[in-house]
From TrEMBL:
Residues 55-169 form the Expansin-like EG45 domain. Keywords: Cell wall, Cell wall biogenesis/degradation, Membrane, Secreted, Signal. Pfam families: DPBB_1 (PF03330), Expansin_C (PF01357). It is found in: Secreted, Cell wall; Membrane. It is a peripheral membrane protein. One of its GO terms (cellular component) is membrane. The lineage of its organism: Eukaryota, Viridiplantae, Streptophyta, Embryophyta, Tracheophyta. Belongs to the expansin family. Expansin A subfamily. It comes from Oryza punctata. Causes loosening and extension of plant cell walls by disrupting non-covalent bonding between cellulose microfibrils and matrix glucans. No enzymatic activity has been found. One of its GO terms (biological process) is plant-type cell wall organization. PANTHER family: EXPANSIN-A15. Residues 1-34 form the signal peptide. This is Expansin. Residues 179-258 form the Expansin-like CBD domain.
């Protein structure tokens, strides 16, 4: 319980500031006062229209239909985590204190959709930008040009995790065959990155799924002919449950959108 006693104006201001900061740190991805900024570097790929960024190791395919647009990025190994960071959102700003190539006062929010592999034929500071243990963003060209001048090629940046803002519910794309359901989880708000997933047929209990690759989650149960519900846990610990997302006559190769998502 907070008890406020009579105090001078300056003392009351200090109390309010402490309370504000406490509330910030209590939130998962919170307000800007609680954000932790980390140094990294950034390059770009995919062309001026970002057409070369479609696909990617997270499995999202067409970034437009998946809801991610052109503000996307590939991550180096230090950030990618074997796919654990797929779907996460990062607020990135060019480090104007370290380079003259920044567009001052700008920042961009990008979604992790791809992996930037190491290039051990190049030194880490001369072309091997994604070599461990470097923290590196290989961003879509449109996103990168929001914060830096094209001719720079590579710039130092500061970044922080930030909540993902999505429209509509979480989507579940089902591929595979009987006894092998591969579920692509997309359009995840909040943390954006999925840490665990479960599926429940109308005739089963909740069944744990395993990450196959990227944001594709695998079940080896026989679920054909059953309505499907899904439970998703984000990497910040939050959990949402989407009941009866896919009807009993669901089909492989189809995507089903729920009416639930994480808050942001």
């Amino acid at each position: 319980m907070l008890v406020f006693r009579s105090s001078s104006g300056s003392e009351m201001e200090k109390v309010l500031v402490v309370l504000f900061l406490s509330l910030c740190f209590a939130s998962r991805l919170g307000c800007s006062a609680a954000q932790q900024w980390t140094s990294a570097t950034a390059t770009f790929y995919g062309g001026s229209d970002a057409s070369g960024t479609m696909g990617g190791s997270c499995g999202y395919g067409n970034m437009y239909s998946a809801g991610y647009g052109t503000n996307t990025t590939a991550l180096s190994s230090a950030l990618y985590g074997d796919g654990a960071s797929c779907g996460a959102c990062y607020l990135v700003t060019c480090d104007a204190a370290a380079t003259r190539w920044c567009k001052n006062g700008t920042s961009v929010t990008v979604t992790a959709t791809n992996y930037c592999p190491p290039n051990y034929n190049e030194a880490s500071d001369a072309g091997g930008w994604c070599n461990p243990p470097r923290r590196h963003f290989d961003m879509s060209q449109p996103a990168w040009e929001t914060i830096a001048v094209y001719s720079a090629g590579i710039v130092p940046v500061k970044y922080t995790r930030t909540p993902c803002k999505r429209s509509g519910g979480i989507r579940f794309g089902i591929s595979g065959h009987d006894y092998y359901e591969l579920v692509l989880v997309t359009n995840v708000a909040g943390s954006g990155a999925v840490a665990a997933a479960w599926v429940k047929g109308s005739g089963t209990e909740w069944l744990s799924m395993s990450r196959n690759w990227g944001e594709n989650w695998q079940s080896n149960a026989y679920l054909t002919g059953q309505a499907l519900s899904f439970k998703v846990q984000a990497d910040d610990g939050g959990v949402v449950t989407a009941y009866d997302v896919a009807p009993a006559n669901w089909q492989f190769g189809s995507t089903y959108q729920s009416d639930v998502n994480f808050s942001y």
